[in-house]
């Protein structure tokens, strides 16, 4: 039959010559290559060539004139700055992805349990719309040491001052007319002793009258207090000058709240605080004791935590990274959570599992593929972290916060201007990223086969 059709009207499915065959998609190979050529050129120019040049450049010295072989790679492990960068990068890889993935998982679960889930997702995801530069500037202000400017220290100081008393006169000190002398630890103790019926005078200086905390009134001379010991604590200075040193003059400000102690043989036998007019009264036990102003009166105010100091700068920057990327993790995990079979969750509850057991033994295992995707993506991302560290870490602490990407820039274009060493760091960074990328590619291929 086929031979008759071929004889009558030619072959039904003529076979083209070997040189003119088309691919399975019906396109000639040279046409496909033509369309792929721009992408191949860009890939070669932006990826392949830079990698090859970096490998070649890493084998030469700073100015590229002398061949040093693997010398630059040897310097990586002998240079303190680079070693710190490797250590901090390892901390980033170990902590940041796990932290962000954990937060994303918690937020994703919460979005299914609150009515305002859309608003909640919007608030959590909003930082992703901010660039690293803007986020760095924001958190540089958040971590500002001054509690009046930095939000973090404002909160810490507020909580601290709620549970602990703070000094209101940190710059005050006894005047030269007083017999109070420094007695160690920031305290001042009198050389003489107190006497019942003779008011004690405690003149202080070191504070401008118009900068005395609160709104104190004028100081009042204390009256004798029978068997007890009375006295006055005041600021022995007034605007415009005048008056007698060591005496309570009209217009001089009281210093309410100052604590005074009566000390005998090194033991406190009585104590009191100055009132609104600066006067205080000690019981009869204070007779014959020395007067002491404890260090709590003059202690510097608590100013919070040095977030960007050498010891906390890396955790602080990781916190800002978590603020930015928790929304990314939440969206991906929430998408995976939406595909979880609810019957499995209900079956676990029917079998007697509580919510924590359902979450830990059912929800998390079912979300494992999504969690792995998020974790690997974040691991690749943090290996290249640069912007936040460069912007948030102040210059004195930048060496302690150093990471490989920042060290690459500093070595290549900083004070050393050693592009050979910088290229070596880039190749090491590429080698560190490659295993994670290979694992991710294999995982994607396995999922496609399913």
From TrEMBL:
Q: Where does the source fall among the domains of life?
A: Bacteria
Family per similarity comment: Belongs to the binding-protein-dependent transport system permease family.
| Any matching Pfam family | BPD_transp_1
| PROSITE patterns, per database record | ABC_TM1
Q: Name one GO cellular component term.
A: plasma membrane
User: Where located?
Assistant: Cell membrane
Q: Where is this region: Disordered?
A: 1-20
Record's Gene3D superfamilies? MetI-like
CDD domains named in the record: TM_PBP2 (cd06261)
Q: What region holds the ABC transmembrane type-1 domain?
A: 86-440
Q: Which InterPro entries does the UniProt entry name for this protein? A: MetI-like, MetI-like_sf, UgpAE/MalFG_permease
**Low complexity bias located where?**
1-12
The protein in question is named Sugar ABC transporter permease
The membrane-topology field of this record reads: Multi-pass membrane protein
The record lists the membrane-crossing segments as 30-51, 90-110, 122-143, 321-340, 366-393, 421-441
Biological process (GO) annotations held by this record are:
transmembrane transport
Taxonomy of origin reads:
Bacteria, Bacillati, Actinomycetota, Actinomycetes, Kitasatosporales
Q: Which UniProt keywords apply?
A: Cell membrane, Membrane, Transmembrane, Transmembrane helix, Transport
